Amino acid sequence: MEKNTIVTLNQFIADQQNQFPFVKGSLSRIFRDIQLAAKMINRDVRKAGLIDILGNFGETNIQGEEQKKLDVISNDVFKRLMDMSGDCICVVSEEDDDIHWCPNGADAKYILAIDPLDGSSNIDVNASIGSIFSIYKRLSPDKPVDNEDIMQAGVNQVAAGYVIYGTATMFVYTTGSGVNGFTLDDSIMEFCLSHPEIKTPQNGSIFSVNEGNLNEFHPGVIEYVNWCKGNNKEEKRPYSARYIGSLIADFHRNLLKGGIYLYPATAKAPNGKLRLLYECNPMAFLVEQAGGKATTGSQRIMEIQPENLHQRTPLIIGSTEMVNQVERLLSNVAEQ
Ligand code: AHM
Ligand code: MG
User: Measured in angstroms, how far is the CA atom of residue 119 from the centroid of ligand 2?
Assistant: First the structure.
């Protein structure tokens, strides 16, 4: 990117259409709508403290978790925009029990999976949160869409990305040809290319994990966390621990600086906490496109065949060499 050149997300997508014809048509319109959703959620997040939309909505979602008002608002924004355009057949959301069928989308090609507002425990304390999206194509235009279309493995994602509402708001996405990041210039309300062709370092010195659960982890993960804290000047250990409890914020930092994020299985939660469709697959697609790696510890995240909408999976994601090291320790312990 030449210095002083301003490339908006819309311009970037228009240019991509020439390079990658599949981005044309309804996919680019879905991007336009996600961008609009991001701006609307950004507006609400920024003024949440002023207009009494912080706090709990008073209901629980399918996972039995309390919903925040902003969770509900963000979920509605995405679905409303998709309903209006008719470019998606349906939306599956972390916040909804069932599939949301878009009234104008019966003949559409795409399926949208969203976590409309991830890390919502951070809303009330003004820490970074994010929206996550992932797009799949229906398997055949000749048959009605069914579970097979909606529950495809992550390797079939057509696009994925996130919006981080941090000190600045950023839109980071991939369509399978690298990862690009755009920062919202709120004086003109446009996402402008700020992080072209993001590549994550192959190794890093940051580890992000909820250490409060350490005693419940697999012995291989415990060994890895202790290894991160061990002393070795050449290997830049001890590593720095950085964990805010907001996947997008932890992931985004590690993506740019090099590092690893772990939400492993615990004794109480043998499949971990994070959801395959809404959180793990999109982040796995992004990290792989940036040169990193995402695994359960024994399987590539994007190769998991989903069996239900709200399925959870352990997630170990980040710089390739760091993820490899965890996999090595896990398999060593398994062999003993
Ligand atoms: P959420 O989708 O209900 O917000 O939960 C997902 C979040 C992630 O953003 C974050 O990394 C993780 O849960 C934190 O969980 P914990 O508080 O158990 O460490
Ligand atoms: Mg979430």
Answer: 6
**How many angstroms separate the Cα of 323 from the Cα of each of 204, 221, 274?**
10, 11, 17
Cα 137 → chain centroid: 18
For residue 42 the two structure tokens come to 């950004």
CA 29 – CA 256 distance, rounded (Å): 28
Q: Which tokens go with 70?
A: 């902003």
Alpha-carbon distance of 222 to 54, in angstroms, equals: 36
Beta-sheet strands, E only, within 69-154:
88-93, 100-101, 110-118, 129-137
Q: Is the pTM of this model over 0.85?
A: yes
Domains of the chain: 9-195 (3.30.540.10), 206-335 (3.40.190.80)
The ligand 1 site (C-beta within 6 Å) comprises 65, 94, 115, 118-120, 210, 245-247, 273
Per-residue pLDDT reduced to its tens digit, 250-263 = 999 999 999 999 99
